TrEMBL record, chain A:
GO biological process: amino acid transport
Ribonucleoprotein keyword on record: no
Keyword Signal: yes
SMART domains the UniProt entry points to: PBPb
Coiled-coil blocks: none
InterPro entries (alphabetical): Bact_solute-bind_prot3, Solute-binding_3/MltF_N
Species assigned in the record: Litoreibacter halocynthiae
Protein name: L-glutamine-binding protein /L-glutamate-binding protein /L-aspartate-binding protein /L-asparagine-binding protein
Source species, domain of life: Bacteria
Endpoints of the signal sequence: 1-22
Keywords assigned: Signal, Transport
TrEMBL record, chain B:
Entries under NCBIfam families matching the protein: HEQRo_perm_3TM (TIGR01726)
Primary location class: membrane
Organism listed in the record: Litoreibacter halocynthiae
Family, as annotated: Belongs to the binding-protein-dependent transport system permease family. HisMQ subfamily.
Membrane topology, as annotated: Multi-pass membrane protein
Name of the protein this chain belongs to: General L-amino acid transport system permease protein
Entry superkingdom: Bacteria
Molecular function terms, GO-annotated: transmembrane transporter activity
GO cellular component: a single term: ATP-binding cassette (ABC) transporter complex
Domain ABC transmembrane type-1 span(s) in chain numbering: 311-506
Amino acid sequence: MKKSVFLGALTVAGIIAGGASAATLDEVKARGKLNCGVTTGVPGFAEPDASGVWQGFDVAVCRAVAAAVLGDGNAVEFVPTTGKTRFTALASGEIDLLARNTTWTFSRDVDLKFEFIGVNYYDGQGFMVPKELGVASAKDLDGATVCIQTGTTTELNLADFFRANSISYEPVPIETGAEAVQQYIAGACDVYTTDASALAAQRANFEDPSAHVLLPEIISKEPLGPLVRHGDNEWADISRWTLNALIAAEELGVTSVNLEELSAGTENPEINRLLGTEGELGSMLGLDAGWAKAALGVAGNYGEIFEQNIGAATPIGLARGLNAQWTDGGLIYSPPFR
Amino acid sequence: MSDTHAQSVAFVRETEIPQSPPPALEAGAVKWVRENLFSGVFNTVLTLLALYVVVRFAIFVFPWFYNGVWEASSRKECIDILREAGKGTGACFAVLVDRWDHLVFGFKYPPEGYWRILLAFLLLLVAAAPALFSSLPRKLLMFTAFYPFLAFWLIWGGSLWLPLTILGLIIATMLVFRLISSQIPVNNRQIVSGVIGVICGAGLAYLLFIGAQELVFIANSVGTEGVISQVAYGVFWIMAIFTFVFCVPMGIFVGYAIYNSYEDGGLVSIVASLLFGYLAFVYLLSPIWMALNSIIPIELQAVASRDMGGFMLNMLLGTICVSLSIPLGILLALGRQSPMPLIKGVCVVFIEFIRGVPLITLLFVANVMLAYFLPPSSNFDLILRVIIMITLFSAAYIAEVIRGGLAALPKGQYEAADSLGLDYGQATRLIILPQALKISIPGIVNIAVGLFKDTTLISIISMFDLVGMIRGPIQNSTEWTSVYWEVYGFGALLFFVVCYSISQYSQWLERQLNTSHH
């Protein structure tokens, strides 16, 4: 008992002294499981289904990294985190990777000492209003009451936007998305603002979705991405290039359908390098040659994961938009596998 | 006799008039309504007003409830069904059907193990019965004492031998206590006291010595940059020097105190049994249960604490924390009344500290801060951390309630106990506590109910209890986004049933214990 108190104090001292680094890869391999931080639930991004299995767009990143490292997309311990506990969970080592639609900002990257490994979804903050209000632009919202989730970047963006346009608003602070929807439908506020993806998902479940419109203004940049701790670059590389592999695979036309066929060897050297039949990218990361193949084997490439979880055919019904490949006019872009 | 007045009076009634019913306005429901609802202008107005509110509420809620859809796979489907049926408003109770298992057991508990939870719950009723109803045979208390180990096995799974071995070691520790405190002659006890005193004194001195070194190390790693670091540096150094100077005297002092207690055997038997228990749990527990398990394996599928959830988690935390915090609270209350300054001081500081801190802060410490304090590889069970925090929290409050009961006892009771020649333990057990606890029942139940409801706070630290389950996975699933009243209403119903039962039981108990027959 006494010993552990001292050890605890030691740990604190260690953190004060400048952050400890451990080989996360070795730890994950020894444990046989990846501890991955996710949300307690965001439709389409991370949610346990009716049989209790985690599904979603962020969850797919966790599974891909687990498959790349351990060869099994199910070797993941999902640790639900809230907006308040996510960063401490990562900093304290409780989780190895945080894939929890977290906005990449300067202070989170630099001041909180995390390493964003890329962007898996480009979001932006939007507004939803009842159609009968007859508002066509967010700039007409002078004096409106706005439902807003507290403790998020959306709260700050909202203040910035209204100040920049010198119009006034009255915030109605709210804890969760479900509560916000309830308040908005009950008429407690004129406007509901949050990330555009969430607005679309929530509107799909309204009694009458057509009675509400999303305003054209997107008032913020919300690049959402997975992140790891500072100080273990090998682990950051593994996570980053697993995400890149999913993205590159879509660009190169590698899908879950033709994965086996292509991994036998192709004419395209980049596909061969990606799938490990040529070069030794895997061993550079400290993984097997088939790491990317394993990651792609879980749920396919980036595009497939998108369509499966949040795409147009799902109840969330999001269009690719900014999240299309750069070749299709979007921002999704992977550095070359060379 | 009847002829006496035959000539003087025309008619004499010879039987009693049959009783007639009271006037219609003075009997039955009409009278009750008149007296209770319309007894004056003011009350009439209030009644009508209340009636209006109730009717409006019923008109609003009843169709919603009556039109409720029980079979659908998503909220969208619910809305479509209602629209097709041409009903304006209706609840979507299908979410309760679809996510029933999640609401009750959490979404990660293996479905083939649900019977274990139900069995544990039924056995809980059996185990709690003799503790709650004194008319039941006392022998059932044996089962109550055994129940925690059985329930642990049923809920967490794994090998049955683990809880059984723990039980065995606890019994062995108690036997050691009895042996030293009352069954060996004083001469032998003197030898035992000497040995234990030397071991403990040396051990304590060694621990303090190590501690002093650690403090020096911490001070040096904090460094002297900036004012705050300088202050911390100084404080750690002072603590280190203090510890260093006192490690040997403290060891001698404690060792001698243990040795000195050989005559009445109080301290030495406590220390010896604690020492024995510690050694047994560290060195004997895992070899024994693993050996037993390899001989006769009795195993259930093991379930990690992280996978507990739903209302089961609330019940689990509520039951464990209440049953742990009442004895702890009694000890704290007695400690606070103690004439010994050290014990009293510790109890006062503990109680006041815990009462001065919100529960949610303690839970955040349990969830987030402890992860910093513990070594990274150690995996200290999250539920266990939460149980410890909630138990400490409610124990502090229960201690204050019981202290109220102790203070309410007339001083004569204490003096009477003394004059009968009872020692402290006997007086407390036989005279003081039975009366003080009786006075404290309403307060204790109040805290138990509050504690049970407070278990939902763990949803804030991302554990999926009933409320966490609703707020997290259910309301944010693609199918059930923005389902609101149905799930919260269901949660409220479950909590109401349990809390109302607790409060009814306590009222019954108060009537049972009411010995002042006026």
